[in-house]
């Protein structure tokens, strides 16, 4: 049986990309609601951590704990070993709460451990005991620095989550060490990047989606690092992986990341076989070209619910082969079953969202549209809907549904 590009294309036209490659077994609406209520009850009933047992002893014992803590700092080769020093200084402070050096050293160790809240509290305790100490101003300055670190750390952690490219690809952003990692399985490989031809057909529509990653470091708003794309197949031709240096910036106010890099370009040719399977007759590198990706995020934890998929985000627009949609074209159509909270809220399968909170979808790119659609659980989002067999648009206000 021949499995050339027409058969592959027919298969692709049955798919809707909604951020997941494989869907788990579907649960009923009642099951999802019960699970969410159970999780909320467990979280509310979670017992608090038991209070730390405070050390007791004499002033001489406090002095010993201080010396043990200093020795632990000298010996420490890991955060776990450094935590031993923290325990010793805590023991000294328990026994002698007015021992300023215990609080001072505790603050230093907690700073090294990255526990800025605790370090600030320890330094403030030191200043309360010794407000006129020679190093009091330096300690106050250190507190200001730690408060800034707190803000930056909170900002960096706040970047983690789902991001959507202007073209519609969904990315997951995670913080790994001091770096930012962006991953997707939906990066579109354009015809300019891989030009694929087929005997008797010529250049064919390129529907390739690839795994891609960005490994980045941030210096203020500037981003730098590497980009990589996994191997893909153009019709019958294997296209090797690609990698490049990447640079860009993050705009916190607009919640936007812009990345620029170079991709290797390829030409691939698939041969139509009269007998047997079609085969790849050649792959060649044709040069380099610049690429730019703009991503928006992170998305809020709630939207139209976890069981709603979308036409328009890396999918196709109904209307035949002539209207294949390679990327975002300003149309957003929902797909959902009756057994969903979105259906309960008034949405119907194949509703087209024309506007989100009064902003026309066609005026937005895919990332901007998703940013407006998602938000905090229970907050309202107003949708202007075009429904099948209904001439006039419908306005619907939905309380945002958690993504899980």
TrEMBL record:
Signal peptide: 1-23
Location of the PDZ domain: 315-389
Keyword match Nuclease: no
Highest taxon of the lineage: Bacteria
PROSITE patterns: PROKAR_LIPOPROTEIN (PS51257), TPR (PS50005), TPR_REGION (PS50293)
InterPro entries recorded: PDZ, PDZ_6, PDZ_sf, TPR-like_helical_dom_sf, TPR_rpt
Short name of any one Pfam family annotated for the protein: TPR_1
Positions of TPR repeats: 100-133
Keywords: Signal, TPR repeat
Listed name of the protein: PDZ domain-containing protein
Gene3D superfamilies in alphabetical order: 2.30.42.10, Tetratricopeptide repeat domain
């Amino acid at each position: 049986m021949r499995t050339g590009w027409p058969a592959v294309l027919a298969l692709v036209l049955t798919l809707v990309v909604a951020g997941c490659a494989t869907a788990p077994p579907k649960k009923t609406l009642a099951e999802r609601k019960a699970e969410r209520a159970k999780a909320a009850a467990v979280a509310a009933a979670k017992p608090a951590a038991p209070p730390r047992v405070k050390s007791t002893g004499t002033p001489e014992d406090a002095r010993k704990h201080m010396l043990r803590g200093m020795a632990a700092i000298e010996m420490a080769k890991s955060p776990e070993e450094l935590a031993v020093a923290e325990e010793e200084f805590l023991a000294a402070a328990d026994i002698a709460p007015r021992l300023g050096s215990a609080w001072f050293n505790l603050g230093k160790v907690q700073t090294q451990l990255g526990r800025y809240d605790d370090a600030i509290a320890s330094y403030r305790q030191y200043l309360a005991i010794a407000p006129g100490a020679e190093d009091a101003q330096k300690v106050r300055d250190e507190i200001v620095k730690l408060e800034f670190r707190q803000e930056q750390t909170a900002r960096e952690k706040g970047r983690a989550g789902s991001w959507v490219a202007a073209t519609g690809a969904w990315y997951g952003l995670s913080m790994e060490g001091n770096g930012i990692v962006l991953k997707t399985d939906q990066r579109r490989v354009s015809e300019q990047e891989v030009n694929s031809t087929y005997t008797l057909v010529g250049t064919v529509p390129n529907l390739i989606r690839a795994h891609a990653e960005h490994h980045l470091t941030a210096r203020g708003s500037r981003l730098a690092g590497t980009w990589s794309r996994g191997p893909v197949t153009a019709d019958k031709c294997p296209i090797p992986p690609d990698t490049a240096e990447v640079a860009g910036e993050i705009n916190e106010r607009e919640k936007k990341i812009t990345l620029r890099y170079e991709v290797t370009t390829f030409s691939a040719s698939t041969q139509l076989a009269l007998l047997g399977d079609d085969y790849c007759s050649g792959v060649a590198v044709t040069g380099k070209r610049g690429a730019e990706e703009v991503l928006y995020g992170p998305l809020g934890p709630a939207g139209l619910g976890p069981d709603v998929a979308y036409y328009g985000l890396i999918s196709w627009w109904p209307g035949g082969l002539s209207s294949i949609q390679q990327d975002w074209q300003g149309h957003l159509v929902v797909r959902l079953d009756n057994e969903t909270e979105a259906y309960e809220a008034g949405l119907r399968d194949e509703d087209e969202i024309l506007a989100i909170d009064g902003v026309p979808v066609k005026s937005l790119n895919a990332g901007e549209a998703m940013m407006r659609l998602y938000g905090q659980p229970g907050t309202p989002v107003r949708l202007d809907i075009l429904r099948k067999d209904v001439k006039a648009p419908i306005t619907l206000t939905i309380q945002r549904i958690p993504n899980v």
